[in-house]
Amino acid sequence: MFRPAEDESETAADPAESDGCSLPSALPSSAARAVDAAELHRGRSLLITFRAPTSGAYGRAFWLAYISLMLLMVAVSLMYRYADFITFLGGGELELGAVVGVGMIGSLAMRLAQGVGIDRYGPRQIWLGSTALFVVSMLGHLLVSRPNGIEIFVLQALYRTSVAGVFGAVFTFVIQQVPVSRMAEAVGMIGTASFVGMLIGPLIGDVISSGGAGGLATRTELDLLFLVAAGLGSASVVAAWFATSREVRPPPRRHVPIAPLLRRYRPGVLLAIGVVTGIALGMPATFLRTFAAELSINRLAPYFTVYAVTAIAARLATRRLTERLGIRGAILIGMSLLVVGVVSYLAVATESQLLLPALFTGAGQAILYPAVVAGGSAAFPARYRGVGTTLMLATIDLGTLSGAPLIGGIVHFGRMIGLPGYPMMFVCIAALLIVSTVFYAGTGRSADAGRAESEKSPNPAVVLKGAPVEATSSA
Questions:
Q1: Percent of the chain beyond pLDDT 70?
Q2: Please, what is the average pLDDT of the chain?
Q3: Closest C-alpha among 16, 164, 13, 1 to residue 76
Q4: Using one digit for the tens of pLDDT, what is the confidence trace for 10-40?
Q5: What pLDDT digit, counting tens, does each position of 168-205 carry?
Q6: Would the CA dihedral through 417, 418, 421, 424 be positive or negative?
Q7: Of the candidates 286, 291, 319, the residue with the CA atom closest to the CA atom of residue 100
């Protein structure tokens, strides 16, 4: 990891702050070097530490992690029919938004705590514990009988917290295997497991909850959804156990409060982009079911099939987009696709027309999500990358937290004043995305101008225990 030379005395005085990696006198050329290019400063000498060599980004551990995440996402995708559960209990969009929004508070509150836990204890403990918590939250729904009782809010908080923990641990786990220049690629590739799960889950959900008279799900169908989700979560625990079986626990180190870390390493405007991303990407998972029901569309599988296939194809085709265009370029492309996707909902009247927003939104998420997460995480040094990753995921959660009640409120109160609820909501969300994209593009230009000016000077000298070595930066 790069550290400014001016901090060298601090590093020497506090070995607990180091990565716990010894520096051999001669490093093999094949060693995997975890270089934090974001910490390069013009005209300064730097001290580098290296991670132990890894077996490669796409080895045994990666594919077991992929299977674990895919199984969990099949289970999560069954919850795209959660609106049916709220409707069965007697609630509507307002109650749905409130339940999901309050549930996200638990996820948001746990994000930074999970990040510290990942950095102190390793991804394995957080990953396994979070997946087990997911199983408990699914089984707990079998006892819920009210749309506004305390139990449904608690279970939603447990559910959202568990999913947050899994994603934070998985992303950190794969990020640790690659250099900074390939972090977005690593997040993007493991993220395709989510889309595979999204492809399978709704198909299972449509089979289980076919919608009887009037298209309403029965209690037996809804309970079966939760039971199947719990079973898939249990299988995910097993895969995660083997994926992380060879993980080396981080060495003991002094606990560093989060606040100083956030003051020193801050992703800046990417935090706001993360919030807006959460609002836009959280909308289909929560409100697509009620929107489709308003149009007498009962099947969700065609939408999520197109969404997932498009996202997988886009993710594979653009997996190194950030290396060519940078984080800013990838984010602008992803945000633009989301704008088109949200606006295209206005043209939907049939099931086949619902595939158009699925196409654009799936492509937008495939490009935007890993760029936002990797861009924010790269602002932190390697030893705090768990905090950096979970911080960016927390901003996306904050978007879902604020977006769910906001969207539900727009639809509910829009109808009360005689306006079409869903069209008005789509216009509002599209406007928010457009304003955010323009703002980010402007701030990005200023940052790029400053970066271009700094690049006119020679590359910074980099030293490893006094011996100069060549530094490369992919920023």
A1: 72
A2: 76
A3: 164
A4: 333 333 333 333 333 333 333 333 333 333 3
A5: 888 888 877 777 667 767 777 888 898 899 889 989 99
A6: negative
A7: 286
d(CA 13, CA 114): 28
For residue 427, the one-letter residue type is V
Cβ 372 vs Cβ 328: under 8 Å: no
**pLDDT of 4 higher than 50:** no
Residue with tokens 């593009």: 441
Residue type, 6: E
- Whose structure tokens read 């608690």? 154
3-state secondary structure the chain: CEEEHHHHHHHHHCHHHCCCCCCCCCCCCCCCCCCCHHHCCCCCCEEECCCCCCCCCCCHHHHHHHHHHHHHHHHHHHHHHHHHHHHHCCCCHHHHHHHHHHHHHHHHHHHHHHHHHHHHHCHHHHHHHHHHHHHHHHHHHHHCCCCCCHHHHHHHHHHHHHHHHHHHHHHHHHHCCCCHHHHHHHHHHHHHHHHHHHHHHHHHHHHHCCCCHHHCCCHHHHHHHHHHHHHHHHHHHHHHHHHCCCCCCCCCCCCCCHHHHHHHCCCCCHHHHHHHHHHHHHHHHHHHHHHHHHCCCCCCHHHHHHHHHHHHHHHHHCCCHHHHHHHHHHHHHHHHHHHHHHHHHHHCCCCCCCHHHHHHHHHHHHHHHHHHHHHHHCCCCHHHHHHHHHHHHHHHHHHHHHHHHHHHHHHHHHHHCCCCHHHHHHHHHHHHHHHHHHHHHHHHHHHHHHHHHHCCCCCCCEEECCEEECCCCCC
Q: In what side-by-side order are the strands of the sheet with 46-48?
A: 2-4, 46-48, 462-464, 467-469
In total, the chain counts a number of residues equal to 475
pTM, whole model, 2 decimals? Answer: 0.65
Six-digit token pair at 410?
């727009």
245-277 confidence digits (pLDDT tens): 876 565 555 555 666 766 677 677 888 899 999
Residue 389 has pLDDT above 60, yes or no: yes
CA distances from 129 to 206, 235, 281, 315 (A): 30, 14, 26, 29
Whether residue 130 contacts residue 161, with contact meaning beta carbons closer than 8 Å, is answered with yes
Closest CA to 46 of 470, 432, 464: 464
Query: What's the CA gap between 140 and 207, in Å, rounded?
Result: 22
Q: Please check whether residue 198 is in contact with residue 304, taking contact to mean a CB–CB distance below 8 angstroms.
A: yes
Question: Given its phi and psi angles, is residue 43 left (phi above 0), alpha (psi -120 to 50 degrees) or beta?
Answer: left
